[in-house]
Specification:
CATH architecture of the largest domain: Roll
Largest sheet: 9 strands, antiparallel
CATH superfamily of the largest domain: Electron Transport, Fmn-binding Protein, Chain A
Number of strands: 21
Structural class: alpha+beta
Distance between the termini: 20 Å
CATH topology of the largest domain: Pnp Oxidase, Chain A
Bound molecules: flavin mononucleotide, manganese (II) ion
Length: 461
C-alpha cells in the first residue's frame, strides 16, 4: 500500500498521543476488544489477556473494585506499531529504519505550563492499590506489579534526563520496589545519588504516547535523553510539564504519574516475578520507591504491559542496534529481525545480498559483528535476500536447502548473554552462528523457481 506524504503526517499524531491512537484503532475492525465483564486484577486479568495476546489492543473496562480501566497491547503486534507510526505495515523493516533515523535526528522536548496528566492531584494519603488497578499476573508472582511505568530520572551530577521502563512491586500504600538490571543508566544514576547521600527523585509515567514508550528502550549512551528519540519518532517535540513535588518533568499527556524518590542505600527483596523468558526471577535486592504524589487525568487509562509487548518494545530497538553494526560491517546487509519466539532478543535473522564473488564470506563476518552488537544475541542466522526474515517457515526453508552443518556452523563457546536466561551460567552461554546462504559461485543451483506475477484479487471477484 502506498502512503502519500500527507497521509504520513496525519498518521503521526497517533504516535504522540495514546488516546488518539486508541480512538483511531477503535474505528478499525478487530483492532480493539473491550471486555465489559468484571475481571479481578489478581490473576484473572492476566489470564484473560494471555488468551488474546498478539491480537487486538485490550481494554478491561470493569476491573473489580476500580473505576479506572486497564489497557494493554499496542505493541503486541508489529503491523499495528508500523501503522501507528504511519509506516507501510507490509514492510516491517521500515519500522527498524525509522527508529534508526530517529536516533540520528533527535527532536528536543518542549516544556509547557500545564497538562492533562495533572487534572487530578493526590498528595495526601497516597494509596497505590486503592487508586490504581495494579495487577498480580502469574500465580507465582510475589505481589502486585506495575509493568508499564516509564521512569524519568535526572543524573544528580549533570542534570541529564534518563528514561527507562522498570517493573515495580507494590510493598505498601505509598511504597514500591523497583527492579534494576545490571548496566542500566538508572542504576548508575542512583549510585551517584547514593554516593552523595541524597535520595534520587524520580517520576514514573504510566500510559504514555506510543512514541515515548518506544523511545524508552532506545539504546543511547549515558547522559543522552531518550525523549529526543521520541520527538523524532512522532515528528514533533514531546510536550512535558514540571512535576508538583520533585525536580522532574513528565509528558503532559500521560495518563497517570507517580512522583517520589528512591531512598539512598536502602535495598530490599523484590520478586519472584514472571521474567521475560516466561520463568520466575530469583528474589533480589531492589531500591525502595517512596511515592509522594499521584497525578492523573480525570478519567485515566491504566496501561499494563504483558510479555509479548515487552518483547516487541525491546526487539525493535535491538534491531536498530544490530542493523547499524551489521551494515557498518558490510553494506550487503538487507534486513534484520529479532524473533518473537526468542523474546525479541536471543535469535536474529539477517538477510544479505551477495552481488559479486568478493562478497562471499562477508555473511560470516556479519554474524560475528551481531554477536558483538548485542550481548543477548545467542543465535544469528544469515540468509539470502530472497528469504523473508520475518517468516520463520521461510527461514527454516533456507536451513533445509542451503545450510550444511559441518561447513556453515559457527560456535563461540562461553560468551556473555543475559543472566536471566535460565540456560546461561550466570550470563555465560555459547553463541551459534548459522550461515544459511547459498555459495555465490553456485547461485544458479540454489535459484528458486519463478512464477508469473498475477493479481489474486482479480480472480476472486
Ligand atoms: C516492558 C518492559 C519492562 C522492563 N523491565 C525492566 C526492569 O524491570 N528492570 C530493568 O532494569 N530493565 C527493564 N526493562 C529494560 C529497560 O527499560 C531498557 O533496557 C532501557 O532501554 C534501559 O534504559 P537505559 O539505557 O537508559 O538504562 C524493561 C523493558 C520493557 C520494555
Ligand atoms: Mn539511557
Amino acid at each position: 500500500m502506498a502512503y502519500t506524504r500527507l497521509h504520513v503526517v496525519f498518521m503521526l499524531s497517533y504516535a504522540s498521543d495514546l488516546r488518539a491512537a486508541l480512538e483511531f484503532l477503535s474505528s478499525r475492525k478487530d483492532e480493539v476488544i473491550r471486555i465489559r465483564k468484571p475481571v479481578d486484577a489478581k490473576h484473572e486479568l492476566a489470564a484473560v489477556y494471555r488468551m488474546l495476546e498478539g491480537g487486538p489492543v485490550v481494554v478491561f473496562e470493569n476491573v473489580k473494585g476500580y473505576k479506572i480501566p486497564v489497557v494493554s497491547g499496542f505493541f503486541s503486534n508489529r503491523r499495528r506499531v508500523s501503522e501507528l507510526l504511519g509506516l507501510d505495515p507490509s514492510d516491517p523493516m521500515q519500522l527498524t529504519l525509522r527508529c534508526g533515523e530517529a536516533l540520528a535526528n533527535r527532536v528536543k522536548p518542549r516544556l509547557v505550563g500545564d497538562g492533562a496528566c495533572k487534572e487530578v492531584v493526590v498528595k495526601s494519603e497516597v494509596n497505590l492499590m486503592k487508586t490504581l488497578p495494579i495487577m498480580k499476573a502469574a500465580l507465582g508472582d510475589a505481589g502486585h506489579y506495575i509493568t508499564a511505568g516509564v521512569v524519568f530520572a535526572k543524573d544528580p551530577e549533570t542534570g541529564n534526563r534518563n528514561l527507562s521502563i522498570h517493573r515495580m512491586q507494590v510493598k505498601g500504600p505509598n511504597e514500591l520496589r523497583l527492579h534494576i538490571d545490571k548496566g542500566r543508566h538508572l542504576g548508575v544514576i542512583l549510585s551517584k545519588a547514593e554516593r552523595m547521600g541524597v535520595p534520587l527523585e524520580i517520576a514514573v509515567a504510566v500510559g504514555v504516547a506510543p512514541a515515548v514508550m518506544l523511545s524508552s528502550t532506545a539504546k543511547l549512551p549515558l547522559g543522552e535523553d531518550e525523549l529526543g528519540v521520541a520527538g523524532a519518532i512522532q515528528g514533533e517535540p514531546v510536550e512535558i510539564v514540571k512535576c508538583d513535588t520533585i525536580n522532574a518533568e513528565v509528558p503532559a499527556n500521560a495518563e497517570v504519574v507517580l512522583e517520589g524518590e528512591l531512598l539512598p542505600d536502602v535495598w530490599e527483596d523484590e520478586g519472584p516475578f514472571q521474567e521475560y523468558p516466561g520463568t520466575y526471577s530469583v528474589v533480589s535486592p531492589a531500591p525502595i520507591f517512596r511515592v509522594k504524589a499521584i497525578t492523573h487525568r480525570s478519567t485515566p487509562l491504566f496501561y499494563t504491559v504483558f510479555m509479548r509487548e515487552s518483547h516487541m518494545l525491546r526487539g525493535i530497538q535491538g534491531e536498530v542496534a544490530i542493523y547499524r553494526v551489521a551494515k557498518d560491517t558490510s553494506p550487503i546487509v538487507q534486513k534484520v529481525h529479532l524473533t518473537m519466539g526468542s523474546c525479541g532478543r536471543h535469535h536474529a535473522v539477517i538477510s544479505v545480498k551477495k552481488e559479486i564473488a568478493d562478497h562471499e564470506g562477508l555473511q560470516r563476518n556479519i554474524i560475528c559483528a551481531v554477536f558483538a552488537a548485542m550481548r543477548e544475541a545467542d543465535l544469528v542466522i544469515a540468509v539470502d535476500e530472497d528469504v523473508d526474515v520475518y517468516n520463520m517457515s521461510e527461514v527454516e526453508w533456507a536451513l533445509a536447502t542451503r545450510f550444511d552443518a559441518a561447513r556453515g556452523l559457527i560456535l563461540v563457546p562461553d560468551a556473555r548473554s543475559h543472566e536471566i536466561t535460565p540456560v546461561s551460567r550466570e550470563g555465560i552461554r555459547s553463541k551459534m552462528g548459522i550461515d544459511a546462504t547459498a555459495p555465490f559461485q553456485m547461485k544458479d543451483r540454489f535459484r528458486r523457481a519463478e512464477f508469473l506475477k498475477v493479481d489474486l484479487k482479480k480472480y476472486l471477484e
